[in-house]
Amino acid sequence: MSFILAPSLLSANFLHLEEEIEILNGSMADRLHLDIMDGVFVPNISIGLQQVKHLSRISFKPLDAHLMIVEPQKFIGLFRDFGIQTLTIHYETCTHLHKIIMQIKENGMKVGVALNPHTPIEVLTDVLEELDRVLILSVNPGFGGQKFIPNSYSKVSRLKNLINKKELNTSIEVDGGIDIKTGKMMLEAGANILVVGSFIFEAKNPIEMIKQMKGL
Questions:
Q1: Which of 65, 27, 22, 68 is nearest to 45 (CA)?
Q2: 145 has binding-site annotation
Q3: The domain spanning residue 99 has which CATH number?
Q4: Which one of 78, 92, 134, 188 is most buried, by most CB atoms within 10 A?
Q5: Tens digits of per-residue pLDDT, 108-142?
């Protein structure tokens, strides 16, 4: 089954981040997933803009950024300048969602919208045509290593049906508690982008684990 595998750097060893990037550069991973947190929208702080700038210089893989921050519109131009190819914002943080979606597209990046576990897919009905992807959070945002929320399976399936009904090519990305078992379930439900964190970085051989994941 053809899909995109995106290791999440949130689970990487930040004391040896350059070494981790070198490992991923030589792996079968398709792209790298950056979780940007501000300690306001979610109860955690992750990498900042300067780290994103340096990561873009050493990664051979395309970079996607998932903004778990308030007022994401203030930083669109910076993420563009740092080489981010896809910028994903949260429905829950955007009062003027359509306006911000268009700003991201005008800055030459692909755009995604993320939904927290409690947010129904129907809130995106009127903007789905403008999106390159929808990110379904299968854990509560903020920390890696959480347990997969089973309801995410039916949520992805419903979203896939809505996309097909509208005859769109919008991708479905899932993030949170993804491993071999849950990853296969999500692909069967209709997802085509898997974000995987601790399952890869805590493996004895991350490159081999990535290879196994790509074999789903």
A1: 68
A2: yes
A3: 3.20.20.70
A4: 134
A5: 999 999 999 999 999 999 999 999 999 999 998 76
